[in-house]
Design brief:
The protein has three helices and 28 strands. The protein has a nine-stranded parallel sheet with strand order 1-4-7-10-13-16-21-24-27, with helices on one face. Strands 3-6-9-12-15-18-23-26 form an eight-stranded parallel sheet, with no helix packed on it. Strands 2-5-8-11-14 form a five-stranded parallel sheet, with no helix packed on it. The protein is globular, with a radius of gyration of 19 Å.
Amino acid sequence: MTAVNSGKNHAFPLRVICYFARMFEPADLFDLSQTEHAAIFDGCQFAWDALKKIAGYLAANLKPELRNQCEGRAYISENVFIGEGTVLEDGVMIKGPAIIGKNCKIRHNAYIRENVIIGDNCVVGNSTEIKNSLLFNGAQAPHYNYVGDSILGHKAHLGAGVKISNYKLFPGNIELELDGKPFDTGLRKFGALLGDGVEVGCNAVLNPGSIIGRGAVIYPNVFWRGILPANMIAKNKAGIDVVVKRPRESP
């Protein structure tokens, strides 16, 4: 399969373009058995349509209850459910509405804002901020991450400092580029869809409307825009010069 890059002038073979058309459905990206909230995808032609439904789903299904443990002092609003075995470290702020599953680790100074659904065995790390997003079971955003208007699949993992940008600088909805033509998602704010098992390296930036297929890998410091098919790797081509270390002359 021809390699995919993040530039504007894609030269995808027909089989890749056809693959793109198939990878937009929820089941193409996610194992829906790995969330207790699969009903949020009911009636969604495209996986990103679930982002429009998070607030309504929480309003209909959230039953506030705190079964967690706290290590230190955390702020938790009234409209929050947290499952047993989940540990909140000192400084956590959960604004809600939010549902957080079982056996999660919500680390020091994490900020969970409005309309967030987090599955079981997830990690939300130090200084990580999440809003209007869904994390499948086992997803991890463990260090200095921003996750806005996004879905992280089963065991998807963000390296330290990864940012998911959810809002473009210019007016209008987020659009995808498909076969050289714009495709309107109907969303003004749309970060990324990360399929099951996706790995994103440290300090990478995912631009609005990024869709990353199952098992794909994005290397550290990559500035990614667009669609990356399953099991592909995106990496920078910049080389690194290695030279002999020589002692400096005395002035």
